[in-house]
């Protein structure tokens, strides 16, 4: 785990993640995956996605999101090589953080990522127990390991994502030579309680499968 608390390191992470968010919006596959996770009031199956109200964007932000989720708008911005402000919200939130935590693991096996996920959960719970608000951040290059995977993720932005990933690893201080990989970035801040609780599916345990 790496903790970033200096203004320089937080600002660098803000710039990196904002640029990665712009690419997420402008890449059809990533944009479709992102918008498919959002749930608006009245949508079916609200427990299977992210309630947009829990993003705490406010009326203006919610209105902007209704425009940004339209694929034809993103296609036009991509054609014009525009959209410089698409990462502005991410940048502003990261810059307002008290600190950032980069949760890491060693190795690329599924079990390594499972252990990393458990660590992220533990950090999240501990931070909240100390009165901190926690927001997860996962830039679009977070789980790629080589250029081939970047080609699959965003073929029109391989060079830019390669550079952003390199900057991210340096800023986070990861020991990549020892196999250290990022699991999740957690933004820590002091904030008012969330206005909407995150919804969860009911937990149903099939006891015979646990034996």
Rg computed from alpha carbons, rounded to a whole number of angstroms:
18 Å
- Number of helical segments with 4 or more residues: 9
How many domain modules?
Answer: 1
- The CATH topology is what? NADH Oxidase
- CATH class division: Alpha Beta
- State the helicity in percent bands: 40-55%
Give the DSSP E fraction (strand runs of 2 or more residues).
5-15%
Mean pLDDT: 88
CATH architectural group: 3-Layer(aba) Sandwich
Count of DSSP strands = 6
**What is the terminal-to-terminal distance?**
34 Å
**Largest sheet, strands/sense/barrel:** 4 strands, antiparallel
Based on helices, strands and strand pairing, what is the structural class? alpha+beta
Low-confidence stretches: none
Offer a quick outline of the entry.
This protein has 211 residues and is an alpha+beta fold. The protein has helices at 7-26, 28-36, 58-68, 71-79, 88-95, 110-129, 147-153, 158-172, 207-210; strands spanning 2-4, 38-39, 50-51, 99-106, 133-137, 180-189.
Secondary structure layout:
Layout: E1 2-4, H1 7-26, H2 28-36, E2 38-39, E3 50-51, H3 58-68, H4 71-79, H5 88-95, E4 99-106, H6 110-129, E5 133-137, H7 147-153, H8 158-172, E6 180-189, H9 207-210
Parallel strand pairs: 2-3
Antiparallel strand pairs: 1-4, 4-6, 5-6
Helix pairs in contact: 1-2, 1-5, 1-8
Characterization of this structure:
Helix content is 49%, strand content 14%. The protein has 211 residues and is an alpha+beta fold. The protein has a single domain (2-196), classed as 3-Layer(aba) Sandwich (NADH Oxidase). It has a four-stranded antiparallel beta sheet with strand order 1-4-6-5, sandwiched between helices. α1 (7-26) packs across α2 (28-36), α1 runs antiparallel to α5 and α1 packs antiparallel against α8. The longest helix has 20 residues, at 7-26. The chain is globular, with a radius of gyration of 18 Å. The two termini are 34 Å apart. It comes from Mycolicibacterium madagascariense. This is Nitroreductase.
